[in-house]
Amino acid sequence: MVQEELKNLIIYTGIYYQDNETYRTRSKIWFQTFDNAQKLGVRVVVRNDGGLPESILERIRAYSNITIVEKTTPNTLGGGRREALQRAIEIAYKKNIENPVFLWTEPEKDNLITEETLLKMISEIRNGTHIAVAEREEKAWNQLPELQRWIEKRANERANKIAKSVAGSEVELDWWFAPKAFDRIGANYFLKYNSKKDRLDLWDAIMFPIVDAMRDGIKVKGVSIDFLYNQSQIDNESDESNKEIKIKRIEQYAQILKELGDSKWEDFFRDAKVELERIKELNRDASEDHRELKEIKTSLVKKFFKLK
Question: What is the radius of gyration, based on Cα positions, of the chain?
Fold first, then answer.
Protein backbone atom coordinates (compact mmCIF):
# COMPACT_ATOMS: atom_id res chain seq x y z
CA MET A 1 0.00 0.00 0.00
CA VAL A 2 2.82 2.40 0.93
CA GLN A 3 4.72 1.72 -2.27
CA GLU A 4 1.57 2.07 -4.36
CA GLU A 5 0.84 5.49 -2.90
CA LEU A 6 4.40 6.67 -3.50
CA LYS A 7 4.10 5.51 -7.12
CA ASN A 8 1.13 7.88 -7.44
CA LEU A 9 3.33 10.82 -6.43
CA ILE A 10 5.32 12.97 -8.87
CA ILE A 11 7.68 15.59 -7.48
CA TYR A 12 8.64 18.55 -9.63
CA THR A 13 11.30 21.17 -9.05
CA GLY A 14 13.64 23.60 -10.78
CA ILE A 15 17.41 23.96 -10.56
CA TYR A 16 19.60 26.91 -11.40
CA TYR A 17 23.36 27.11 -10.96
CA GLN A 18 26.05 29.73 -10.56
CA ASP A 19 29.69 28.97 -9.95
CA ASN A 20 29.93 30.22 -6.38
CA GLU A 21 30.00 28.71 -2.91
CA THR A 22 26.26 29.09 -2.34
CA TYR A 23 25.33 27.05 -5.40
CA ARG A 24 28.15 24.55 -4.96
CA THR A 25 26.71 23.83 -1.52
CA ARG A 26 23.14 23.69 -2.79
CA SER A 27 24.00 21.38 -5.68
CA LYS A 28 25.41 18.81 -3.26
CA ILE A 29 22.08 18.84 -1.41
CA TRP A 30 20.18 18.39 -4.69
CA PHE A 31 21.72 14.97 -5.09
CA GLN A 32 20.73 13.99 -1.56
CA THR A 33 17.16 14.95 -2.51
CA PHE A 34 17.37 12.93 -5.72
CA ASP A 35 18.87 9.95 -3.87
CA ASN A 36 16.04 10.02 -1.33
CA ALA A 37 13.43 10.05 -4.09
CA GLN A 38 15.13 7.23 -5.98
CA LYS A 39 15.27 5.02 -2.88
CA LEU A 40 11.53 5.55 -2.36
CA GLY A 41 10.72 4.90 -6.02
CA VAL A 42 9.27 8.40 -6.50
CA ARG A 43 9.30 10.05 -9.92
CA VAL A 44 10.87 13.51 -10.20
CA VAL A 45 10.64 16.16 -12.92
CA VAL A 46 13.54 18.60 -12.93
CA ARG A 47 13.33 21.85 -14.86
CA ASN A 48 16.78 23.04 -15.97
CA ASP A 49 16.54 26.77 -15.22
CA GLY A 50 20.02 27.46 -16.55
CA GLY A 51 23.68 27.64 -15.68
CA LEU A 52 24.14 23.91 -15.08
CA PRO A 53 27.55 22.55 -16.07
CA GLU A 54 27.53 19.36 -18.13
CA SER A 55 29.01 17.38 -15.23
CA ILE A 56 25.94 18.08 -13.08
CA LEU A 57 23.54 17.36 -15.94
CA GLU A 58 25.23 14.01 -16.59
CA ARG A 59 24.78 13.01 -12.96
CA ILE A 60 21.10 13.94 -13.05
CA ARG A 61 20.52 12.05 -16.31
CA ALA A 62 21.86 8.91 -14.63
CA TYR A 63 18.79 8.70 -12.35
CA SER A 64 16.17 6.37 -13.81
CA ASN A 65 13.37 8.14 -11.91
CA ILE A 66 14.18 11.68 -13.12
CA THR A 67 12.86 13.47 -16.20
CA ILE A 68 14.67 16.67 -17.19
CA VAL A 69 12.77 19.53 -18.82
CA GLU A 70 15.21 21.72 -20.71
CA LYS A 71 14.85 25.47 -20.95
CA THR A 72 14.26 26.06 -24.65
CA THR A 73 13.11 29.68 -24.73
CA PRO A 74 13.49 32.62 -22.34
CA ASN A 75 10.60 32.74 -19.91
CA THR A 76 9.78 33.66 -16.35
CA LEU A 77 10.54 31.68 -13.21
CA GLY A 78 6.84 30.93 -12.93
CA GLY A 79 6.72 29.81 -16.56
CA GLY A 80 9.47 27.30 -15.87
CA ARG A 81 7.53 25.91 -12.92
CA ARG A 82 4.46 25.44 -15.11
CA GLU A 83 6.52 23.65 -17.76
CA ALA A 84 7.74 21.18 -15.14
CA LEU A 85 4.23 20.66 -13.76
CA GLN A 86 2.84 20.12 -17.25
CA ARG A 87 5.44 17.42 -17.86
CA ALA A 88 4.54 15.78 -14.52
CA ILE A 89 0.88 15.71 -15.59
CA GLU A 90 1.84 14.17 -18.93
CA ILE A 91 3.83 11.47 -17.13
CA ALA A 92 0.82 10.69 -14.93
CA TYR A 93 -1.33 10.14 -18.02
CA LYS A 94 1.35 8.10 -19.77
CA LYS A 95 1.85 5.85 -16.73
CA ASN A 96 -1.92 5.50 -16.26
CA ILE A 97 -1.84 6.97 -12.76
CA GLU A 98 -5.52 7.37 -12.03
CA ASN A 99 -5.26 9.69 -9.01
CA PRO A 100 -1.86 11.37 -9.13
CA VAL A 101 -0.51 13.69 -6.46
CA PHE A 102 1.93 16.40 -7.51
CA LEU A 103 4.43 17.91 -5.11
CA TRP A 104 6.35 21.13 -5.68
CA THR A 105 9.50 21.63 -3.65
CA GLU A 106 12.82 23.38 -3.89
CA PRO A 107 15.60 20.84 -4.53
CA GLU A 108 17.54 21.87 -1.40
CA LYS A 109 14.86 20.44 0.90
CA ASP A 110 16.28 16.91 1.04
CA ASN A 111 14.85 16.24 4.51
CA LEU A 112 11.35 16.62 3.05
CA ILE A 113 11.76 13.53 0.89
CA THR A 114 11.08 10.85 3.48
CA GLU A 115 8.44 8.15 3.49
CA GLU A 116 6.76 9.61 6.58
CA THR A 117 6.49 13.16 5.23
CA LEU A 118 5.45 12.24 1.70
CA LEU A 119 2.76 9.84 2.91
CA LYS A 120 1.45 12.53 5.26
CA MET A 121 1.11 14.99 2.37
CA ILE A 122 -0.50 12.36 0.13
CA SER A 123 -2.90 11.35 2.91
CA GLU A 124 -4.15 14.92 3.21
CA ILE A 125 -4.97 14.95 -0.50
CA ARG A 126 -6.72 11.58 -0.22
CA ASN A 127 -8.85 13.03 2.59
CA GLY A 128 -10.35 15.61 0.26
CA THR A 129 -7.91 18.52 0.39
CA HIS A 130 -7.03 19.79 -3.08
CA ILE A 131 -3.94 21.78 -2.08
CA ALA A 132 -1.89 20.76 0.98
CA VAL A 133 0.68 23.32 2.12
CA ALA A 134 3.59 22.00 4.18
CA GLU A 135 4.23 23.82 7.46
CA ARG A 136 7.45 24.05 9.45
CA GLU A 137 7.59 23.18 13.12
CA GLU A 138 9.44 25.41 15.57
CA LYS A 139 12.69 23.43 15.38
CA ALA A 140 13.00 24.28 11.67
CA TRP A 141 12.20 27.94 12.32
CA ASN A 142 14.90 28.03 14.97
CA GLN A 143 17.53 26.97 12.43
CA LEU A 144 17.02 30.10 10.34
CA PRO A 145 19.15 33.25 10.58
CA GLU A 146 17.46 35.98 12.60
CA LEU A 147 16.65 38.24 9.63
CA GLN A 148 15.20 35.42 7.54
CA ARG A 149 13.08 34.13 10.43
CA TRP A 150 11.77 37.63 11.16
CA ILE A 151 10.94 38.36 7.52
CA GLU A 152 9.21 35.03 6.85
CA LYS A 153 7.09 35.05 10.01
CA ARG A 154 6.06 38.62 9.31
CA ALA A 155 5.30 37.75 5.68
CA ASN A 156 3.19 34.73 6.66
CA GLU A 157 1.14 36.91 8.99
CA ARG A 158 0.37 39.43 6.25
CA ALA A 159 -0.34 36.75 3.63
CA ASN A 160 -2.75 34.98 6.00
CA LYS A 161 -4.65 38.24 6.52
CA ILE A 162 -5.03 38.60 2.76
CA ALA A 163 -6.15 34.98 2.43
CA LYS A 164 -8.68 35.44 5.24
CA SER A 165 -10.29 38.32 3.35
CA VAL A 166 -10.69 35.97 0.37
CA ALA A 167 -11.67 32.77 2.18
CA GLY A 168 -13.95 34.47 4.71
CA SER A 169 -12.46 32.52 7.61
CA GLU A 170 -9.22 32.23 9.54
CA VAL A 171 -6.24 31.04 7.49
CA GLU A 172 -2.97 29.78 8.98
CA LEU A 173 -0.58 28.70 6.25
CA ASP A 174 3.21 28.71 6.08
CA TRP A 175 3.31 30.58 2.76
CA TRP A 176 7.06 31.17 2.79
CA PHE A 177 7.87 27.46 3.06
CA ALA A 178 7.63 26.40 -0.57
CA PRO A 179 6.55 22.69 -0.59
CA LYS A 180 2.95 21.97 -1.45
CA ALA A 181 1.06 18.93 -2.75
CA PHE A 182 -2.09 18.91 -4.86
CA ASP A 183 -4.33 16.80 -7.05
CA ARG A 184 -5.40 17.53 -10.62
CA ILE A 185 -7.95 20.11 -9.43
CA GLY A 186 -5.28 21.97 -7.47
CA ALA A 187 -2.78 21.61 -10.31
CA ASN A 188 -5.08 23.49 -12.65
CA TYR A 189 -4.74 26.66 -10.55
CA PHE A 190 -0.96 26.57 -10.83
CA LEU A 191 -1.07 25.81 -14.57
CA LYS A 192 -3.37 28.70 -15.49
CA TYR A 193 -1.59 31.32 -13.38
CA ASN A 194 -0.55 34.41 -15.37
CA SER A 195 -2.59 33.33 -18.38
CA LYS A 196 -3.20 37.02 -19.14
CA LYS A 197 0.53 37.83 -18.82
CA ASP A 198 -0.20 40.52 -16.26
CA ARG A 199 1.60 39.11 -13.21
CA LEU A 200 5.16 39.36 -11.94
CA ASP A 201 5.34 35.56 -12.40
CA LEU A 202 8.36 34.92 -10.24
CA TRP A 203 8.07 33.61 -6.67
CA ASP A 204 4.38 34.57 -6.64
CA ALA A 205 3.66 31.76 -9.13
CA ILE A 206 3.73 29.13 -6.37
CA MET A 207 1.72 31.22 -3.89
CA PHE A 208 -0.97 33.27 -5.61
CA PRO A 209 -2.71 30.23 -7.19
CA ILE A 210 -3.59 29.19 -3.64
CA VAL A 211 -5.49 32.46 -3.16
CA ASP A 212 -7.31 31.88 -6.46
CA ALA A 213 -8.28 28.39 -5.29
CA MET A 214 -9.57 29.72 -1.96
CA ARG A 215 -11.63 32.32 -3.80
CA ASP A 216 -13.33 29.46 -5.68
CA GLY A 217 -14.01 27.50 -2.51
CA ILE A 218 -11.35 24.87 -3.19
CA LYS A 219 -10.18 23.14 0.00
CA VAL A 220 -6.69 24.23 1.05
CA LYS A 221 -5.08 23.03 4.27
CA GLY A 222 -1.75 23.31 6.07
CA VAL A 223 0.12 20.14 7.02
CA SER A 224 2.68 20.27 9.83
CA ILE A 225 5.72 18.17 8.96
CA ASP A 226 8.83 16.95 10.75
CA PHE A 227 11.48 18.86 8.81
CA LEU A 228 14.97 20.25 9.30
CA TYR A 229 17.06 22.27 6.86
CA ASN A 230 20.27 20.72 5.61
CA GLN A 231 22.93 21.99 7.99
CA SER A 232 25.44 22.66 5.22
CA GLN A 233 23.03 25.15 3.63
CA ILE A 234 22.36 26.82 6.98
CA ASP A 235 26.10 27.12 7.63
CA ASN A 236 26.73 28.54 4.16
CA GLU A 237 23.81 30.99 3.99
CA SER A 238 23.39 32.10 7.60
CA ASP A 239 25.91 34.93 7.36
CA GLU A 240 23.75 37.97 8.10
CA SER A 241 26.46 40.21 6.65
CA ASN A 242 25.88 38.68 3.18
CA LYS A 243 24.30 41.67 1.44
CA GLU A 244 23.22 39.71 -1.66
CA ILE A 245 21.20 37.19 0.35
CA LYS A 246 19.64 39.95 2.48
CA ILE A 247 18.53 41.91 -0.58
CA LYS A 248 17.03 38.80 -2.20
CA ARG A 249 14.99 37.96 0.91
CA ILE A 250 13.67 41.49 1.24
CA GLU A 251 12.87 41.64 -2.49
CA GLN A 252 10.94 38.36 -2.32
CA TYR A 253 9.04 39.54 0.72
CA ALA A 254 7.95 42.84 -0.80
CA GLN A 255 7.24 41.63 -4.34
CA ILE A 256 5.20 38.59 -3.28
CA LEU A 257 3.01 40.55 -0.87
CA LYS A 258 2.41 43.14 -3.58
CA GLU A 259 1.35 40.41 -6.03
CA LEU A 260 -0.91 38.87 -3.37
CA GLY A 261 -2.78 42.18 -3.29
CA ASP A 262 -1.43 43.71 -0.08
CA SER A 263 -2.64 47.31 -0.44
CA LYS A 264 0.16 48.72 1.70
CA TRP A 265 2.80 47.17 -0.52
CA GLU A 266 0.99 48.26 -3.68
CA ASP A 267 1.15 51.82 -2.32
CA PHE A 268 4.79 51.36 -1.34
CA PHE A 269 5.85 50.32 -4.85
CA ARG A 270 3.84 53.10 -6.47
CA ASP A 271 5.43 55.72 -4.21
CA ALA A 272 8.86 54.11 -4.38
CA LYS A 273 8.86 54.27 -8.18
CA VAL A 274 8.85 58.07 -8.06
CA GLU A 275 11.53 58.17 -5.37
CA LEU A 276 13.74 55.65 -7.16
CA GLU A 277 13.60 57.72 -10.35
CA ARG A 278 14.71 60.76 -8.35
CA ILE A 279 17.59 58.72 -6.90
CA LYS A 280 18.72 57.87 -10.44
CA GLU A 281 18.66 61.55 -11.39
CA LEU A 282 20.73 62.54 -8.36
CA ASN A 283 23.23 59.74 -8.98
CA ARG A 284 23.74 60.97 -12.55
CA ASP A 285 24.55 64.50 -11.41
CA ALA A 286 27.63 64.34 -9.18
CA SER A 287 27.63 68.12 -8.75
CA GLU A 288 24.39 68.10 -6.77
CA ASP A 289 24.24 68.34 -3.00
CA HIS A 290 23.53 64.74 -2.08
CA ARG A 291 21.73 65.48 1.15
CA GLU A 292 18.50 64.96 -0.78
CA LEU A 293 19.78 61.58 -2.03
CA LYS A 294 20.46 60.45 1.52
CA GLU A 295 17.07 61.69 2.68
CA ILE A 296 15.20 59.80 -0.06
CA LYS A 297 17.07 56.55 0.62
CA THR A 298 16.44 56.91 4.34
CA SER A 299 12.76 57.56 3.66
CA LEU A 300 12.41 54.38 1.57
CA VAL A 301 14.08 52.24 4.22
CA LYS A 302 11.85 53.68 6.95
CA LYS A 303 8.73 53.05 4.86
CA PHE A 304 9.79 49.45 4.27
CA PHE A 305 10.24 48.63 7.93
CA LYS A 306 7.04 50.41 8.95
CA LEU A 307 5.00 48.02 6.83
CA LYS A 308 4.35 45.18 9.26
Answer: 20
